[in-house]
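The material for today's practical consists of a large collection of protein records. Getting from the letters to the tokens is the skill we practise here. To make this concrete, we reproduce a full record directly below:
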Amino acid sequence: MPARSKIEPFDSLLGTMPDPHLAKRIGVTTEAVRQRRLKLDIGPYVEPGMPSLERFAALVGALSDRYVGQLLGVSTSVVRARRTLLGIPPAGPRKVLAGYDGVLGLLTDEAVGKLAGVSKQCVTARRNALGIQSQRDRRKTHGVGRENDCA
């Protein structure tokens, strides 16, 4: 191993541009740049004008990355990367869906999934695990037809 890092002469550029760009410029791997940046306790590059996740810190890990991204107007991968960097575990479907238990069986699984930011299959699995009938089955069992919905 060399006595000096190949990246060391470029330390002043760490965090001023995306790691892949700096890595290409130096001729090293992105991971090497990332490791050097972390060793020097330098944060990752943040594009100017990019909304800060700090305003939504309480939501990261509590809501799906996709939903937080929609609130911020950024991609899911941006939220996921920041959440991972902060060491916050992802919000699993159970954690996210727990707040929607009251509407399971009243709305379609697809509608609940869109509200919660999870797949229809996740909603169906949770509803079944809780022993709640689907909206369709509930309508059949209770004899509620479309014509009676507005009465």
